[in-house]
Amino acid sequence: MIGVLVNTLTVLLGSAIGLLLKKGIPERVSGAVMVAIGLCTVYIGIDGAMSGNNTIVLIVSMVLGTIIGTFLDIDGKINKIGQFFEKKMKKKDNKTSIAQGFMTGSLLFCVGAMTIVGSLNSGLSGDNTLIFTKSVLDLISSCMLATSLGIGVMFASVFVLLFQGALVLAAGLLQGVLTDSALIAEITCAGSVIIIGLGLNILGISKFKVADMLPAVFLVPAIYYLFGLIPISL
Question: CA-CA distance, 164 to 211, in Å (whole number)?
């Protein structure tokens, strides 16, 4: 769990630095930074999505996962957490939504190839190398994100701690299942497709409820092994 704790602290530190820098950065610059972050997020998503080899597994996992997530209203619940922080902070500036910062930060830091593979490596073998690498990237990302979306990004560190911590613990409990590199590639692919949706949201192109798609990542192992019995790969 040391890797998860380090990652949580880097998000806190990066966000704090971003909040300090925010006061001296013009709005047009922060807006341009958000576009850059959005484009990089889309790139990260596309790069990770290319790791998958079975389109059927991706489609079925995404469809069923989104149905489950929509019924559970995961997106709405995460937003409510952000809105809770927003009320507690009693922010004076209505231009920046704490809920938006919390949602964007939570998904950007927790849904992706490095999060999934890094957490699995940590839980399966105690190797925190990838999480430490991700922590450095999150330090920079949280700093840049906080300059545009404010303190909500800092609160996303709580989600990082809980989500990645759960993945590490789950990996330790499921050592016999999560050792197939092809399966990990499919899990990474599903998470990366969700990241693409997040990037489009950051760019203002769409308003996808990407958090409702999160169950897809956890459905991939079951769908993978089910379709593994059928000799079909697209």
Answer: 15
Task: For 23, list phi and psi in degrees, rounded to 5.
Answer: -65, -25
Place of tokens 């609160």: 155
**Token digits for 70?**
């929509």
What is the structure's pLDDT at 225?
85
Cα-trace Rg, the chain:
17
Angstrom CA distances, 68 to 60, 169, 191, 195, 214, stand at 12, 23, 16, 18, 9
| Angle of CA points 30, 141, 129, to nearest 5° | 170
How far apart CA 142 and CA 154 sit, in angstroms, is 8
Cα 74-137-196 angle, rounded to 5 deg: 45
Assigned domain for 232 exists: no
- Asked, for residue 234, whether it belongs to a domain, the answer is no
Per-residue pLDDT tens digits for 78-119: 777 767 766 666 555 455 567 778 888 887 788 766 777 778
Which residue in the block uniquely carries the two structure tokens 């997040």?
Answer: 198
Burial of 24 (0-12, 13-18, 19+ CB in 10 A): exposed
Which of 73-87, 158-172, 187-201 is the least confident region? 73-87
Per-residue pLDDT tens digits for 139-169: 888 888 888 788 888 888 988 898 888 888 8
Domain extent, residue 66, equals 2-227
